[in-house]
C-alpha cells in the first residue's frame, strides 16, 4: 500500500528511475539529474529537503518553510508532494500550499488522488484549515483531483486556475456546509 513518507536515501535507485521516465522532470532544488547520480549527492539532496521543515537563513530566497514528502510503495518511489506551511505573494499567485508530481509509470492508477488526500491530512495537522492549490487550465486530471477533494474555484490567473480546498475530507463535511470564507484568501 502506498504512503507519504519523509524523503530517505534508500530510494536512490527508484528516484533516479522515476526521473528518467520524464524528459522534462521537475524536482525542487536540483538543476541536473547528474547532481543526484552518486549516493553522496543524493544524500545531500535528501538532507536539504528535510532541512526546509525549519525556517531560517538556509531557505533559498523567496521560499517558505515546507514539507516535501514522497509517495512510495514498498521500495518504489512513485512521486512527491510539497506542502508549503504558509503563503508568500509568489505562492499566492503561483503554486499555492500544495504541489504534487507522479512519475509517468504511476499515473492513471489513483496515486495522485490518494497522495493529494494524504497531503490534505498533513496540512490539517499543520493547522492549515484550507489550502490554496493551483493547476494549469488544461490539466484536466489535476482539476478532477482538486475538485473531487472539494476544491472551490477562486479565479483564473493567466494559464493557472486557483482553488481553495478544505483540509477536512468532503466525506466528513459536505462542501456545502463549509462556510465559503473558510476556503478563501486570508486577506
Characterization of this structure:
There is one protein chain. The chain is built from five helices and seven strands; from the N terminus they run E-H-H-E-E-H-E-H-E-H-E-E. With 187 residues, the chain is of the alpha+beta class. The strands form two sheets. The chain has a four-stranded antiparallel beta sheet. A three-stranded antiparallel beta sheet has the order 5-7-6, with helices on one face. Strand 6 (152-157) and strand 7 (160-166) form a beta hairpin.
Q: What is the number of E strands?
A: 7
- Secondary-structure element series: EHHEEHEHEHEE
Strand order of the largest sheet: 1-2-3-4
Which spans of ≥5 residues are poorly predicted at pLDDT below 50? 177-181
Q: What is the molecular shape? A: globular
Number of helices: 5
Percent in strands: 15-25%
Structural class: alpha+beta
How many angstroms does the end-to-end distance come to? Answer: 39 Å
- How would a crystallographer describe the biggest sheet? 4 strands, antiparallel
Could you tell me the radius of gyration in angstroms?
A: 16 Å
Average pLDDT, rounded to a whole number, is 87
Amino acid at each position: 500500500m502506498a504512503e507519504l513518507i519523509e524523503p530517505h536515501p534508500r530510494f536512490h535507485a527508484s528516484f533516479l528511475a522515476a526521473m528518467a521516465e520524464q524528459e522534462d522532470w521537475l524536482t525542487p532544488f536540483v538543476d541536473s539529474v547528474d547532481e543526484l547520480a552518486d549516493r553522496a549527492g543524493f544524500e545531500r539532496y535528501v538532507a536539504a529537503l528535510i532541512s526546509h521543515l525549519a525556517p531560517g537563513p538556509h531557505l533559498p530566497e523567496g521560499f517558505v518553510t515546507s514539507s516535501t514528502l514522497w509517495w512510495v510503495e514498498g521500495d518504489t518511489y512513485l512521486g512527491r508532494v510539497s506542502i508549503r506551511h504558509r503563503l508568500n505573494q509568489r505562492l499566492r499567485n503561483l503554486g499555492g500550499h500544495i504541489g504534487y508530481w507522479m512519475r509517468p509509470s504511476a499515473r492513471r492508477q489513483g496515486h495522485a488522488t490518494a497522495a493529494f488526500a494524504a497531503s490534505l491530512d498533513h496540512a490539517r495537522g499543520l493547522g492549515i484549515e484550507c489550502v490554496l492549490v493551483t493547476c494549469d487550465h488544461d490539466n484536466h486530471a489535476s482539476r478532477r483531483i482538486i475538485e473531487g477533494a472539494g476544491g472551490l474555484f477562486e479565479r483564473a490567473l493567466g494559464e493557472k486556475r486557483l482553488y481553495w480546498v478544505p483540509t477536512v475530507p468532503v466525506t466528513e463535511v459536505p462542501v456545502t456546509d463549509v462556510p465559503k470564507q473558510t476556503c478563501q484568501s486570508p486577506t
